[in-house]
Amino acid sequence: MTRRAALARLALGLGGIAGGLPAAARAGAPERLRFADLYAGGGPLGLTFSDAARRLRGQPVAMRGFLAPPLKPEAGFFVLAARPVSLCPFCQSDADWPHDIVVVYLHPGSEFRFRSSADPLEVTGVLELGSRTDPETGFVSQVRLVGSHARLL
Amino acid sequence: MTRKVLFALVTVAVVVFHSAVAAITIYPIDRAEILAGSRFDFKVELDGVVAPGDVRVTVNGADHARTFGQAARFVEREDGVDASALLLRDVVIDAPGRYTVEATDGRRSARVSWEVYATGPRSAKNVILFVGDGLSLAHRTAARVLGKQISEGKYHGKLAMDAMPHMALIGTAGVDSIITDSANSMSAYTTGHKSSVNALGVYADRTPDTLDDPKVETITSLAKRKLGMAVGVVTNTEVEDATPAGMVAHTRRRSDYDPIVRMFYESGVDVLMGGGAANFLPKSTPGSRRKDDVDYVTKFRDAGYTIAATESEMKKTAADAGTRKLLGLFHPGNMDGVLDRKFLKKGTVERFPEQPDLVDMVRSALEVLVRHDAGFVLMVESGLIDKYSHPLDWERAVMDTIMLDQAVAVAQAFAAGRGDTLILVTADHSHGLSLVGTVDDDVRGEVMRDKVGVYERARFPNYPAPGGDGYPPRLDVSRRLAIFFAGFPDYYETFRPKLDGPFVPAVPGPDQRYVANERYKEAPGAVLRIGNLPRDSNTGVHTGEDVVLTATGPGAERVSGFMDNTEVFRVMVEALGLGDATRR
After folding, report:
1. Is B148 inside any structural domain?
2. What dihedral do alpha carbons B402, B404, B409, B413 form, nearest 10°?
3. Are residues B357 and B495 in the same domain?
4. Does the beta carbon of B322 lie under 8 angstroms from any beta carbon of chain A?
5. Where a domain ends, among B365, B400, B432?
6. Do B508 and A88 touch (CB under 8 A)?
7. Is the Cβ–Cβ distance between B382 and B404 less than 8 Å?
8. Which of A63, B203, B212, B563 could be a cystine partner for B567, CB 3.0 to 4.6 Å?
9. Residue A118 to residue B257, Cβ atoms within 8 A
10. B57 in a domain, yes or no?
11. DSSP string, B20-38
């Protein structure tokens, strides 16, 4: 899926879920999802998404962490990790990443300017679960935030 | 002759020489040493598109088909390259001797010379190769200081790897660079051929396809094909990572994890244990990193492997006398190091609490492999020595060196009295760390560097005596080792062990450059060190010094002096008699 397609899907998703959102979400306060709460358990041979993650699928959520930047300009995404990482998506293969990363596609209107991966920040976007291979880069992700906005904490 | 003229002449000479070399390239390269009876791909890369009738390739003066059994296939235009090539897969030369290969397209020519060598008869039933990834002298010395203690200049014990009768220095450079990575250095050990950074089991050719490069045969394939031996691969990194992958893989790009999993499967390797489960799971499974829906856990199970995902499953499975094939996957990515697993419970230990220790993995691997009557080749990697040395986290690296040494002791105990097992312990490359002295909190000083004791002021560190597990129970002592790295990005030096999780010295900053991780700025006494590496380096780097190889058992007597990393392969195949002419 291209970035544009992802955004299109985001628009559809937002339209589709508006009616079912909790009052807080409709009021523009997306629910917080912590890294520790993404997976409920499982082991090396397969993780299990938590009830909270599955409930929030397709809805706007806020996650706090540290961004690794796209060091290739053509990549339209960042990687959000629970801790600062020295990796960049293309210097290393996706295999080097922590198991619980979240891929972040920024909203085109986002005014976020990346400064340093040491900056703790909050990213708000629509939660996508399930495997996706970024068509331009081949980067594989299981969790994504699309149409995201980021702000420094 | 003026200096300017001399310079111009030298420049011309270099350019002419270089273009002569670059015009036609022959693989295997000049001075390759090839095991008689082993398989390799032969390739000639021609300069531009040429007519097939103009190309002539000879071996020792006669048409190459006479030596190779058939003519190489002419490719008019290689994929992605506007040039012709000749390619012949799976060439075998049985007769030892010197082979001079000459190729010409009528205008240019190139020549390489190979040594094809036979071996004597088999002297070892089993070979165990230990690789401390990035294991350097300072790791080893510090492991002895922390694990055995030292006073009045005398150690209170030796490491297991110290107690091996044969030793050599190993050169680690690759085809393309004086500095190697773990892929091509492991490839040298497992194939006897040099390779290039990021490449495994191939000579890196010019085409963009990473899976079409000219292959060379691995010791896994040779041991299975020629002697019906069992093969084990044990690591605490991802099993797809360069060192373990070097046992089976043929790819220009070490990050080809999905293909590497397939290569492990096709290799028939009998014991495979480590992290890296994510690329065995179909992409529909959360935690998977595969790009397809192939379920390799099921495929391995269907092929007769018992699967273990925890320490207890591994031990139970290995103890079962019926287990002959074992796949142990204990983490989606790299496993945690011993400091985090046993002591601090940091890293990912909370999420994956049942990761086995490398020492127990080796015990279980041996338990399974010894059931194979034809003998075995076992490769054991303590891979996090490197993973922690990159981010300058030397304490974690040294703790994993002690763990490696304990695994070596298990192998030595296995081999004791048998007389049939060659054990090699080495590194694949070095890191630039040095033991400078101690850091003493009780020395007065306005800044931490004034507390660094050098020469007699270093005295000896005051780590507590190791417990029954062989590890010092504390690292944050008042007088601790001062170990510094030669190459580094911008980072905050804290002069202290990182007890709140593995060190992340530098993080990506703006403009595609790395900057010091400010998380450590507030550590007491932390000072900013401006890096001496390129600003796109995020960590410390491999260095080009030799590494140490120690060996014991039949065939170990070949280990001495200075050896090239390709000669380590030769030590192993000599011990196993894999090029024994009387057997062919």
Report:
1. yes
2. 160
3. no
4. no
5. B432
6. yes
7. yes
8. B563
9. no
10. yes
11. HHHHSEEESPTT-EEETT-
**Any CB–CB contact under 8 A between B517 and chain A?**
yes
For residue B218, being part of any structural domain is answered with yes
Instruction: Give B-chain residues touching A144 at CB under 8 angstroms.
Output: none
How many domains does chain B contain in total?
A: 3
Of the candidates B257, B275, B284, the beta carbon closest to that of A93 is on B257
How far apart (Å, rounded) are the C-alpha atoms in residues B362 and B378?
Answer: 9
Domain range for residue B30?
A: 23-117
CB contact under 8 A, B539 and A115: no
* A30 Cα to chain B: minimum distance (Å): 24
Domain ranges (residues) in chain A: 3-152
Same-domain check for residues B81 and B202: no
- Which of B55, B36, B206, B220 is closest to B116 using CA atoms? B36
ipTM of the complex: 0.84
Output the six-digit token pair for B93: 């030369």
> Which of A45, A48, A96 has the CB atom closest to B281's CB atom?
A45
Q: How confident is the model at residue B5 (pLDDT cuts 50, 70, 90)?
A: very low
Does residue B375 share a domain with residue B237? yes
Residue from the list A44, A46, A138 with its beta carbon closest to the beta carbon of B330: A44
CATH of domain A3-152: 2.40.50.140
Scan residues 228-267 of B and list those with Cβ closer than 8 Å to A.
238, 240-241, 254-255, 257
Tokens at residue B399, please? 């703790």
pLDDT tens sequence across B20-76:
345 899 999 999 999 999 999 999 999 999 999 999 999 999 999 999 999 999 999
* Domain membership flag for residue B537: no
Name the domain boundary from B398, B432, B466: B432
Q: In the A/B pair of chains, how many CB contacts fall below 8 A?
A: 128
What does the CA dihedral A106, A110, A115, A120 come to, rounded to 10 degrees? -70
Q: Are residues B113 and B133 in the same domain?
A: no
* The overall pTM is greater than 0.90: yes
User: Do B102 and B165 fall within a single domain?
Assistant: no
